From TrEMBL:
Keywords, alphabetical: DNA-binding, Transcription, Transcription regulation
Entry keyword Transcription regulation: yes
Matches recorded under SMART domains: HTH_ARSR
Entry-linked InterPro entries: ArsR-like_HTH, HTH_ArsR_DNA-bd_dom, HTH_MetalResp_TranReg, SdpR-like_repress, WH-like_DNA-bd_sf, WH_DNA-bd_sf
Pfam family, one: HTH_5
Domain HTH arsR-type: 1-87
Protein name according to UniProt: Autorepressor SdpR family transcription factor
Length: 95
């Protein structure tokens, strides 16, 4: 899970995840949304893959990237559990 949160700390990687939320994309399609080099996009995609936030699949000559929703759900569940603890907000205290 640490790798997932480290990967999510970068705004470029968060934007890649937002793009993949809309549809599966190739690295070239993803790169069109950024003003950075294709090797930089590949680097970000590799970090997301190492964190298991995205998965890739070869389709003919292309590699298509998609969200790994299982890991995303686990990370969000953990985060929501942390902020949803009793007493986290003064209005949550019993009266």
């Amino acid at each position: 899970m640490n790798d997932a949160f480290k990967a999510l700390s970068d705004p470029t990687r968060r934007k890649i995840l937002q793009l993949l939320k809309e549809s599966d994309l190739s690295a070239g399609d993803i790169a069109e949304h950024f003003n950075i080099s294709k090797p930089s996009i590949s680097h970000h995609l590799n970090i997301l893959k190492q964190a298991h936030l995205v998965q890739d699949e070869r389709r003919g000559q292309s590699i298509i990237y998609s969200l790994n929703l299982t890991v995303m759900q686990e990370a969000m569940s953990w985060l929501l559990g942390m902020i949803g603890t009793k007493g986290a907000h003064p209005d949550d205290e019993p009266k």
